[in-house]
Specification:
With 268 residues, the protein is α/β, with parallel strands linked by helices. The protein has 2 domains: 150 residues, 3-Layer(aba) Sandwich (Rossmann fold), CATH 3.40.50.1860; 109 residues, Rossmann fold (3-Layer(aba) Sandwich). Helices cover 49% and strands 17% of the residues. It contains 12 helices and 9 strands. α10 links the parallel β7 and β8. α3 crosses α4 and α9 packs across α10. The longest helix has 20 residues. The chain is globular, with a radius of gyration of 18 Å. The mean pLDDT is 94. It binds D-glutamic acid.
């Protein structure tokens, strides 16, 4: 164990508050770690931009985190993972962990009915999702539903009625999916974890809602263990620090509110 490295923070980034859903799971899974969370609000949203643009802004975010001194980087964003993780891994030697829509567990647990995947337009366009889709579409009916503007709506702390109205339109009217036929909803964007209740209210109680945060948090733990990078037992306890490329006066308190919400959701 190299104590200097072990005591460095784990860097985490997303376009905004979405990745805080994963951050909270990691805090619970790895007490004693220090986390640096970057909300790349100056470049948000990611999901409706081009792949090249998101590759560039994600690399810039990774460089910013790396310059702060981190022992691992978690890309807490499905969109940035799809567009940029290969490039980030090429440039940095530290472990880089990303996210992908949890289609495999959805098919394994509940492959009989319709599985809808809610994600940003860019995530659903990219190879990562399309490879997963081809791999599992033979044994389940998978329906991708792009959700432009949804991350922004969640981030604006919209009222539950507005969230439900958006979902009714995007899944039912635009996506032409009959709610009572849905067996599973895969949350393919970290922002959507904050509106699980509204999703369930719209789609109905028969639908299981699956997100990748739990699995990713465990994957980060296993990776740090394997690399001998976990914080020393003598560490001073969990620390979380928020950074932003946006306006700190607005974004940092927003991050703190969503972090409390995310911890509350785990406790539920
Ligand atoms: N939270 C991000 C994701 O998981 C993207 C949100 C956005 O900026 O469009 O894909």
């Amino acid at each position: 164990m190299n104590n200097n490295l072990n005591n460095l923070p784990i860097g985490v980034f997303d376009s905004g508050i979405g990745g805080i859903s994963l951050l909270a799971k990691m805090v619970r899974t790895m007490p004693g770690e220090h986390f640096l969370y970057l909300s790349d609000s100056a470049n948000a949203p990611y999901g409706t931009k081009s792949c090249n643009c998101i590759r560039d802004v994600s690399l810039a975010a990774a460089r910013l985190m790396s310059a702060k001194g981190i022992k691992a980087l978690v890309v807490a964003c499905n969109t940035a993972t799809s567009a940029a993780i290969t490039y980030i891994r090429e440039e940095f030697e530290i472990p880089v962990i990303g996210m992908e829509p949890a289609i495999k567990p959805a098919v394994e647990k509940n492959g009989k009915g319709k599985i809808i995947v809610l994600a940003t337009p860019l995530t659903l366009k990219e190879n990562k999702f399309n490879d997963l889709f081809r791999r599992f579409n033979c044994c389940a009916e998978i329906i991708p539903v792009p959700c432009p503007g949804f991350a922004e709506l969640i981030e604006s702390e919209a009222q539950p009625e507005e969230i439900r109205e958006y979902l009714t339109h995007i899944i039912g009217d635009a996506g032409r999916v009959k709610f009572n036929k849905v067996s599973t909803v895969v949350l393919g964007c970290t922002h959507y974890c904050f509106v699980r209740d509204e999703i369930s209210q719209v789609v109905g109680p028969q639908a299981v809602i699956i997100d990748g945060t739990e699995g990713t948090a465990r994957h980060v733990l296993r990776t740090l263990e394997a690399e001998g990078l976990l914080a020393a037992a003598s560490s001073s306890g969990t620390e979380v620090e928020f950074l932003t490329t946006g306006a700190p006066d607005r974004v940092i308190p927003l991050c703190e509110r969503f972090f409390d919400k995310a911890l509350g959701m785990i406790g539920k």
